[in-house]
């Protein structure tokens, strides 16, 4: 209730980095940096390998054409071309943008053997990849990715033919 609760000294002190130009987003960030840059939900998923609740994310049912970037570092990870309707409640892709865009880690938590998918650039958690589930996609893989790990950049203007080609 104190009127001093809102003064500038009430702001949480941070270890501000002295004014050294650190250049563009270096992948090596401290935990404190991540906490500052990301929302609590983003931090939980990206840096603590959390999982958003199904059907709550921003992109699980999105069909907008564009590229999906890493929410943490901005690296391009997936495109709408490989996104498909898995009806699992999370954005699903049958392949990453490029093999080098993501990296894989065997995850044995929860008593299951799963393959975790991380951003190859900043090592943030994205989701998991599953295989052989019978989806009619070219790879039969499902990259089950948290919306909160991604940022969709809609494709600007029509690149050449913008009709409804085969989809
Ligand atoms: Zn990243």
Please indicate the count of domains: 1
CATH class placement: Mainly Beta
Q: How many DSSP H or I helices?
A: 2
Name of the CATH superfamily: Peptide methionine sulfoxide reductase
Beta-strand content:
25-35%
Indicate the CATH architecture: Beta Complex
The helix/strand series, from N terminus to C terminus, equals HHEEEEEEEEE
Q: Could you say which small molecules are bound to this protein? A: zinc ion
| Rg from Cα | 19 Å
Q: How would you write the strand order of the largest sheet?
A: 3-4-8-7-6-5
Q: Overall pLDDT, averaged?
A: 84
The CATH topology corresponds to Metal Binding Protein, Guanine Nucleotide Exchange Factor, Chain A
Residues in helix, % = under 10%
Q: Sheet bearing the most strands, described?
A: 6 strands, antiparallel
Total DSSP E strands: 9
Gap from first CA to last CA: 59 Å
The parts where pLDDT drops under 50 for at least 5 residues are 1-23, 160-165
Structural class given helices, strands, pairing? Answer: mainly beta
Which overall shape is indicated by the principal axes computed on the Cα atoms? globular
